Amino acid sequence: MSTAIPHRTMVALRLAAVAIMGAVVALALAASPAQALTQTEAGTFKSGTHYVALDPAIPDSNVYVVYDSDSKNKITSVKNSNTKITEVKKYPYSITIHLKKAGTTTIKYKYKGKTYTHTFIAKKYVNPAKTLKIGSKNYAGKFKAMNYYDLKKAQPGKKVVLKAKNGWKLKEVIINTYKNKQYIEKHKKASSFTLTKYDESMTVLWQHKKTGMVSCTYIALGINS
Asked: What pTM was computed for the model?
């Protein structure tokens, strides 16, 4: 995890990532080498090709956990075609798939007597944002090499305008609001909206039109004092 990201911001970012990826599975996390944010029940994770935009700000998002929720059926015969791209670790009732860098790998395993085959195509991070305006300033250029930026000051009353680059589209925006000592998530589909004084961080989900691959942009909005 990047030490450049403040703890309170990372908490907010993790909350947003958990909302995107789904509920945390205790057994899988206990076995995982990292606090993985993508968990999938083995029986529902269908064979196929999966395009993944590597996340430089939260590397744990590049880890998949495939698990048996009942802890009764083992995942066996695990094979990894490209260990340079992907690290796979096997546990009795789960496996972790860590996408380390851009490239292609095929993971095979058996579960309940059936063979599953997953081809992961991991893509190096690119900035999907053409416009990421907060108030009068366009911050899109801040995300050229890293998908995280800290504004350090709260932005109450400022209008947000979002526009994707060619080939991408806006999928969703998740606002993490901290009010009365509690985090509350707000989900938005709109490409423009106004921030409140309680909005502490924002996660923008962009989706590649051709592959369906999702890339995240994280913005720390600051704490209103």
From this structure: 0.82
